[in-house]
Amino acid sequence: MVIDTLCRCPFSEARGTSRTCARRGSAMIEGTIRTIDPSSRTAVVLADDGRELLLAFPAEAVIEVSEPETMGLMGGVLGDLQLGYRVQVEVADAPVDGRYACTALVCLS
Q: Whole-prediction pTM value?
């Protein structure tokens, strides 16, 4: 799951640009939000490959959600997310204390 080369940045793809970013020691995962707890800054995402991942969101995590009027993306917070939303997350390649640090999340729903 380690990404050693350039990967497409989910924020660039969502905005229709071609910018890429180098992310060593991280992985891009798509899945569905199973649980979310904004107070503890955690969520459980069921990845498309069947794994359940416990995510921890540091204060500097970037969260992008759908903007209903333009159908684009805008900055968001954990409280904007709901159970069942499809998301693409960038997580550290190795969990710490059973939690994957999530540095970026794009809501696909």
A: 0.72
